[in-house]
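Sample entry was shown:
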Amino acid sequence: MKNFFLMWVGFLMVLMPICGSFALSKQEQIEHIDRQITVLQQEKRGLEGRIEFYESEANRLQFQNTELSSAKKYWQLAQSSKALVQEINQKIEDLQKEKISLAQTP
């Protein structure tokens, strides 16, 4: 799932602007960036919800001797999801900078 997500975001972030930016007006490019930001923010919210679930499960299971391995699994899932959220935040910041740059160019 992580690989699919990264490939999808990579496609969205790299190929789409390159292919479409030549034919788009500046306003259309800004709108395209806004749509990309919206998609990324939705994915980020979904991941944050999963992180909350994973941490809750890990906290619940960590004190049950027979479930310690399950608790560790949930902590690992939470950590990998947090790493994805950080990547998404960076992509959103990059897109916002690109949007500002586009808006400032004549």
Summary: The two ends are 41 Å apart (CA to CA). The CA atoms of residues 33 and 98 lie 8 Å apart. The helical segments are 2-20, 26-61, 68-104.
